[in-house]
Amino acid sequence: MGPFKAAVCSITACVCLSLTGCGQQQTLAQREIVRAVFLERQKAECKAVLLVEDTDLPEGESGYKTADGTGDTFEKAICEAELSLDGTPFYGLMDLVTMPLEADWETVTQAGQLLYEQAQPAPEMTLFLLDAKDFPLPKSAGELYDILCAATKTYKLHGGLEGLFVQQDFCALPVWQEEGMGFAFLRRGQQPVRLDSGLEAQLAAVLCGQIRHLESYYAQESAYCAADTTVQWDAEKENINILLHLRKTSLADLSGQERPQSDLESILETELQSAFQRLNQTAGDIRADPFRLNFWKTSVMETTVQNPLPQLIVEIEP
Prior knowledge:
disordered N terminus, 7 helices, 9-stranded mixed beta sheet, alpha/beta, single chain, 4-stranded mixed beta sheet, about 30% helix, globular
């Protein structure tokens, strides 16, 4: 074994010890605490940027530093980024991962599996597909981390690496771009279907169980909605009803026409119903089951019902 290979093996062993918690003699203060991993693809090259807590700042101050690496795979890029750190990386407090906007199902699940194996003990983290053209990395890594953490709180976003593997051959992820949060359906062997930011994308995220708060323009941006959401499924022998409950709802009229609240509610419900129909059409086009309707079809409904159309019921309360 050559000296370089031996050194890499030694470093890898140290990484494994720190990630699995076996290196008990090493405190968190002695580790490089990774808070986020940003993955990019630049033509044929993969890039990884690690956002690390900066422990060299004066007492009472906090901030970040970055380490980046490139390679022909994300695994190699992450390895190169780790080797550029002064200490041993620790992933146990990581809470954010971004992947390239153009990533397909194969890319996302491969990267997710790599991070799942590497980031032990497995932390709670949020995943985004990222349009990074307005956030050059690594320069904007700290700013982007703060923006995405704020968005996670605003939308009450709940997701993680395990969500990539709930369904065979399919997953769904929130998308972040300059104009706000979108959503994407990713199916094995197909191009991703990305939904632009707005009511339809957020409804998809709610029904996929990834967010619990809506904040969106509607009515051709002449009104604004903010509401907490809960979803209840009511499957019977012949149909599936999905109850979307909007709570703590705030509707604002931006048109200057002083429309009554009842009109704003009616327009919102109509647009939610239209968005739901488009989402079902999209799911059918890519032969996917983003809202996991097959579970109800096989466990509750009569076998004679082949393709029931789910019904969305919207309840709005202040």
